[in-house]
């Protein structure tokens, strides 16, 4: 594996321009003062109640996502490139999703294989020929970005269903501003606080034509036992909208209403944090107690907007991800600004042969996997684990892709022994409404807190950092 790109320091040890002030501040700040503020940050997070649960753990208790007090810093020039690339990618994703549920030009052109769509468990035939308001399928996208050198940001993953983590982006900034006003005073940091306003504006802009001039938006949650429930309640509060569960909603005459103390009130837009399978027991899983009977009929009648649209899971598929450069070129006639990681499709015999011969060097992922589960990191795996994966690949090659082990960039991180480099990724949040796409400058930086680890997922022991984009 190549040497990781150090975001703070040049190879010769000189501090990069964006980190000059932070470097000076760190030299002036005693280690015990930094540790004191780290503990204070943890206490604040506990008081606020920011927790998550890891499904499948024996104790499964709520726990904090560790927060690192050293910010990750991007220059305005770096952010401009990222922003342009993210908008291009999400535009292509929306065009792709409309096409596969309508004309299917991309399939007829043999750019993407038919079976990757029609045999995909998250393809929704119910959406065939179904128009969605303003052709926006992915209203909220979380695009996972990694950095490998000074010039290149690479997309690791597309999250087009119900991307999470934005509450941590907002809370991280609030905590940093409270604990480190002196450090903020030395920088011109672009704000992220407008995200809730941008999100509400985005959701209202895609309301059905039959909606009132002031459309009613609600956030639909699976309930308090969901691992991201904190985020659901946090966002509903920030947006000033109702947080509802399936049992709070009712469908009458193909319109959706929520029960209130003043009677039924029509809902025009539902920001749903419930997966497709559980949305409507009359259309999808009949055993779902989380959904709303008749919701899909109201949706198909054009009387309610669901964000994100039903059927967007196709864009999350890691096999589809491997075709994204071709998808961008097909719909936009442009070269992708943000590259993909080189990806081997194990469904293809030549790629499978290569992967089986190089398992100890590669990262192997399930095409429908998420959260860092079900994957093999070859260089860190035991021989027994590698052999077990080899058997899996031979049995179900179509269920996996493989990628080189990337040397994710590193940022200075506060650890027990002081400051040390740790690997990071970035999840910016892209909002697409009726007539514009917006991205608040920054996003959620996730950090692998274990020395040498490349796994940044909170469910696998990762933490988060505040992301500063310098407003130069």
TrEMBL record:
<dbReference type="InterPro" id="IPR051680">
    <property type="entry name" value="ATP-dep_Glu-Cys_Ligase-2"/>
</dbReference>
<dbReference type="InterPro" id="IPR016450">
    <property type="entry name" value="UCP005522"/>
</dbReference>
<dbReference type="Pfam" id="PF14403">
    <property type="entry name" value="CP_ATPgrasp_2"/>
</dbReference>
<feature type="domain" description="Circularly permuted ATP-grasp type 2">
    <location>
        <begin position="71"/>
        <end position="448"/>
    </location>
</feature>
<dbReference type="InterPro" id="IPR025841">
    <property type="entry name" value="CP_ATPgrasp_2"/>
</dbReference>
<protein>
    <recommendedName>
        <fullName>Circularly permuted ATP-grasp type 2 domain-containing protein</fullName>
    </recommendedName>
</protein>
């Amino acid at each position: 594996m190549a040497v990781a790109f150090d975001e703070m320091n040049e190879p010769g040890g000189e501090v990069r321009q964006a980190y000059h002030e932070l470097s000076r501040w760190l030299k002036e700040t005693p280690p015990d003062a930094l540790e004191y503020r780290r503990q204070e940050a943890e206490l604040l997070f506990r008081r606020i109640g920011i927790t998550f649960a890891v499904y499948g753990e024996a104790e499964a208790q709520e726990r904090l996502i560790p927060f690192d007090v050293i910010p990750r810093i991007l220059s305005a020039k770096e952010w401009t490139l990222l922003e342009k690339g993210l908008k291009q990618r999400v535009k292509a994703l929306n065009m792709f999703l409309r096409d596969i549920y309508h004309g299917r030009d991309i399939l007829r052109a043999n750019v993407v294989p038919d079976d990757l769509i029609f045999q995909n468990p998250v393809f929704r035939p119910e959406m065939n020929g179904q128009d969605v308001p303003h052709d926006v399928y992915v209203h909220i996208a979380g695009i996972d970005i990694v950095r490998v050198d000074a010039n290149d940001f690479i997309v690791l993953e597309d999250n087009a269903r119900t991307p999470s983590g934005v509450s941590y982006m907002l809370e991280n900034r609030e905590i940093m501003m409270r604990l480190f006003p002196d450090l903020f005073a030395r920088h011109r940091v672009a704000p992220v606080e407008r995200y809730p306003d941008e999100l509400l504006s985005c959701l209202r802009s895609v309301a059905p034509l039959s909606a009132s001039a002031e459309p009613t938006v609600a956030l639909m949650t699976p309930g308090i036992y969901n691992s991201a429930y904190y985020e659901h309640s946090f966002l509903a509060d920030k947006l000033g909208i109702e947080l509802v569960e399936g049992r709070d909603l009712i469908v009458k005459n193909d319109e959706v209403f929520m029960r209130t103390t003043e009677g039924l009130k029509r809902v025009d837009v539902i920001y749903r944090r419930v997966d497709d399978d559980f949305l409507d027991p009359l259309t999808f899983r009949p055993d779902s107690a989380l959904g709303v009977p008749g919701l899909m009929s109201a949706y198909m009648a054009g009387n309610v907007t669901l964000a994100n649209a039903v059927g967007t899971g196709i864009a999350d598929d890691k096999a589809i991800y491997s075709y994204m450069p071709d998808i961008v070129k097909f719909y936009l006639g442009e070269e992708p600004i943000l590259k993909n990681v080189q990806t081997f499709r194990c469904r293809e015999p030549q790629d499978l042969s290569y992967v089986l011969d190089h398992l100890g060097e590669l990262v192997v992922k399930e095409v429908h996997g998420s959260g860092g589960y079900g994957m093999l990191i070859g260089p860190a795996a035991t021989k027994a684990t590698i052999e077990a994966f080899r058997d899996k690949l031979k049995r179900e090659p179509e269920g996996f892709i493989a990628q080189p082990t990337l040397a994710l960039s590193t940022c200075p991180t506060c650890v027990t022994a002081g400051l040390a480099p740790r690997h990071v990724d970035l999840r910016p949040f892209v909002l697409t409404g009726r007539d514009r796409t917006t991205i608040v400058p920054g996003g959620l930086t996730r950090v692998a807190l274990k020395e040498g680890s490349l796994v940044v997922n909170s469910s696998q022991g990762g933490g988060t950092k505040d992301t500063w984009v310098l407003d130069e």
